[in-house]
Amino acid sequence: MKITKDLYQGSLALLTDFYQLTMAYAYWKSGKTEQEAVFNLFFRKNPFQGGFTIAAGLDYVIDYCRNFKYDQNDLDYLRNMKGKSGEPMFEDAFINYLGDMKFSCDIDAVEEGTVVFPNTPLIRVKGPLVQCQLLETPLLNILNFQTLIATKAARITLAAGGEDVLEFGLRRAQGIDGALAASRAAYIGGCSSTSNVMAGKLFGIPVSGTHAHSWIMSFDTELEAFEAYAEAMPDNCVFLVDTYDTYTGLLNAIKVGKKLQERGKQMVGVRIDSGDLAYYSNMAREMLDSAGFHEAKVVASNDLDEYLVFSLKVQEASINVWGIGTKLVTAYDQPALGAVYKLAAIKDQQGNWEPKLKVSQQTIKINIPGFQNVRRYYRKGVASADMIFLEDQQNEEKGPLIIDPIDPTKRKKIDIGLESELLLKPIFRHGEKVYARPEIHEIKNRTKANLERFDKAHKRLVNPHIYPVGLEESLFNLKTNLVLKAKNQ
Ligand SMILES: Nc1ncnc2c1ncn2[C@@H]1O[C@H](COP(=O)(O)OP(=O)(O)OP(=O)(O)O)[C@@H](O)[C@H]1O
Ligand SMILES: O=P(O)(O)OC[C@H]1O[C@H](OP(=O)(O)OP(=O)(O)O)[C@H](O)[C@@H]1O
Ligand SMILES: O=C(O)c1cccnc1
Predict the structure, then answer these.
(1) 300 lines ligand 2 (CB under 6 A)
(2) Does ipTM top 0.90?
(3) Owning domain of residue 214
(4) Three-class SS state of 222
(5) Last-in-domain residue among 310, 329, 348
(6) Which ligand minimizes its atom distance to the CA of 271?
(7) 6-16 in b/e burial notation, b at 16+ Cβ within 10 A?
(8) How far apart are the first and last CA of the chain?
(9) For 5-40, what is each residue's pLDDT tens digit?
(10) Of 276, 294, 329, which closes a domain?
């Protein structure tokens, strides 16, 4: 098996659930492929029982859509698929139709690094029904994971209070692509660097690292190991001090640090990877300070997550840099975001948009119909509410009322004249990219700047205050009427 040499340069058109193709075929047989439709991608609950989510993955989606083309191999594979009767699954004319298909959708999306909330569209896809449908699985695959990891990274970096968080997850990540996507999303969410060198190369993320216990163990003594490392890497000395005994390790690090100073070099710091991280980091700080190494950092690692970082802060641990792997890149306590992609409207024969609704026994699962956008309102620079509205019914002047999509008794009147912005930005028009893809550093800065515009009550780790998101009144009425109509059918 070959691994795609350059990410997304080969065709990934078949990276989809088979049912998308069976539906595509049936749409084609029913003459519905070109009927215009709108789908929204959204999630229903912030991950990690948190109060916010960080959107990530759009850049992959852009790549995916630009390369959305069935190549000859894909078509041959589909041509050879057989049904139960042994007959070809798909008619040749349909395979040719797929071969000729050219991506032509309009896509609007929330930019990466934006703080987002349940029920608001992260991506809106408008175009021929068949294309919108075929994009469902890859879009969910990409956005669910990267959004989840960016959110986890944001929670961890918030807990770290602006101190550096190094992402160390490659060895524990969900395979090769999972690791790469996780490193990218972790950087967007707030990590300062990755240990994953390939992610560094592919995405332009800073790469950093210390050394492992094996390095120390390969020498007769720890001191020799530190000395040899300092010889080889005089500008990158973070000594791992806990291989045998952390106190002795610190004494050895200080000895070698002094030798480095004699050569005009500075020891960057020490890393502690076991034991009581509060106790040993405080011991390290005291010893380093007494020896005059006030600038030396104390790096901690070992199964950390946002809750342990928070706890270590409360314990007044002297940790300045956090190395975090497994629990970050696997989103350990919630392994999937659960975003969905739903048909919101379809154009009828007369060219009128018909809003679409999926009724469910569970109110939370009823989608929001119609051609929507989202407006975020700010009061004195602080985000105060998001309004989901029908794009052709902008209700600015009146000072709209927003109504909670799940509990209609929760309502909020938006004051006239508040600062606001539209969250869905144009990405593709008629299949052509109209969006300038930002650099990854710009995206990371957006996350930070966005988070700063939210009250800290929404950002706390446990039982956060719920940020208000609601339907503009006419959208609420549309939804309610459609639900009532569907229930009477
Ligand atoms: N002061 C502390 N408060 C809360 N949790 C801590 C503190 N110090 C360490 N921890 C966490 O407790 C767990 C300790 O795990 P464990 O007992 O397996 O570590 P151990 O001492 O590391 O050694 P090893 O990794 O070598 O097995 C880790 O998740 C670590 O991050
Ligand atoms: O704990 P994580 O958040 O995943 O961070 C990465 C871990 O990976 C390395 O050790 P590894 O786990 O390979 O071995 P060790 O725990 O036995 O040192 C490193 O020393 C960290 O402990
Ligand atoms: O550079 C490090 O210290 C590192 C890298 C990966 C995993 N654990 C530690």
Answers:
(1) no
(2) yes
(3) 150-329
(4) helix
(5) 329
(6) 3
(7) ebeeebbbbeb
(8) 52
(9) 455 456 899 999 999 999 999 999 999 999 999 999
(10) 329
